[in-house]
Amino acid sequence: MPEGLIIDDNRSTADALKQMLDVLDVPARVAYGSSPAMAVLGSSVPRFVCLDINMPGVDGTEILAYLRREPRLLRVPVIIITSDDQPETRQRVMRGGAQALLIKPATIDGLEAALRKAGVLR
Q: How far apart are CA 96 and CA 111, in angstroms?
């Protein structure tokens, strides 16, 4: 089973998400920012993506758009994990193809629910 991919420029947040996924027995790797993430996405198809929105350089909405226009990545479930709780942001990412959205700080229960909503867990 392929691993998921956590994309977040904040190491503490990314590492906390990785630990929660480990507890849920869901394998994932971490990309600390958009450049490392694009390198991973260029060579592999993750099982799912946990994606931060606010990152320097290429932000999460641009990565989401890439995932939705790249044929081999089109069906990868995307869970947005962000501190931006604005209704416009929520609408934009859900219209952009995300399956779920979590507001930081994420909890293990919230992450598990988002994974279920995205079809990663049953």
A: 20
**Both tokens assigned to 69:** 């226009």
Please list the residues that pair with 81 across neighbouring strands: 102
Classify strands 49-51 and 4-7 as parallel, antiparallel or unpaired: parallel
The CATH H-level superfamily of 4-112 is Response regulator (3.40.50.2300)
* Per-residue model confidence (pLDDT) at position 1: 60
Q: List the chain domain ranges.
A: 4-112
Instruction: Indicate yes or no: pTM above 0.85.
Output: yes
User: pLDDT, tens digit, for every residue of 6-21?
Assistant: 999 999 999 999 999 9
Q: Which residues contact 78 (CB under 8 A, 6 or more apart)?
A: 48, 49, 51, 64, 67, 97, 98, 99, 118
**Amino acid (one-letter) located at 2:** P
pLDDT value for 47? 97
